[in-house]
Amino acid sequence: LSARLGYAFTDISLLETAMHHRSWNAENDGGESNERLEFLGDAIIDAVVAHYLYTKYPMLPEGELTKMKSKVVRRENLNMIGYTLRIHEVLHLNLGRQDMHDSIVGNALEALVGALYLDRGFEATRDIVLKLLKQHGLDTRVHDDIDYKSKLHEWCQKNKRTLSFKVIGHRNEGGSSYYKIAVMIDDQEYGTGDGGAKKSAEQKAAKRACEKVFEAK
User: Fold this and answer.
1) 144 in catalytic set
2) Pick from 88, 117, 94, 119: which is nearest to 1 by CA?
3) Contact 8/86 with Cβ under 8 angstroms?
4) Is 215 considered catalytic here?
5) What pLDDT, on the 0 to 100 scale, is given for residue 110?
6) Which one of 27, 29, 32, 42 is the catalytic residue?
7) Res 9 pLDDT > 70
8) pTM
9) Which is nearest to 205 in space by CA: 214, 196, 192?
10) Which residue is catalytic, options 29, 99, 102, 110?
């Protein structure tokens, strides 16, 4: 697990504790389970993602940043990263005839992050967590289900800018339409998009404009 993580623990007992599910400890004369480390790791992941989004999107309000963060730290994402690291192969647990729920793997990932934090501190942990999250689509997930046209319209209203969408290309092929749309802010082109319908082309163009407007340079 250390090799897959790319990190060698100074205190290996922290890693061992992170991989001890409470069911294992209950069957093996007690001892500390990974629940306290899970609690700590959950908070660390939240802090890492919050700091990343805060610095990457300096123009976005608190509400939008909160929505973005929730898309990254949702349970199924953490479960998936845990399985990619193959945590389930080294996790100590004793569930009897019960199936192992995916959340047990995600919880162990949080415990692992807590162990990393105690072993090396916040900055090293942040770098590892961000690497894992980016490998699993961090920068894509934060934009899931965003209405880019609405976001751009709100920004232009707030900053007293004029927004328009201009058709710069249109043709018919085999009975199907094809559009190319440009986003204009104060008569300056900020992005283009294409598609078989005006709305989809406008959304693609608006997404590119949002990337130019909101993302940190």
Assistant:
1) no
2) 88
3) no
4) no
5) 97
6) 42
7) yes
8) 0.66
9) 192
10) 110
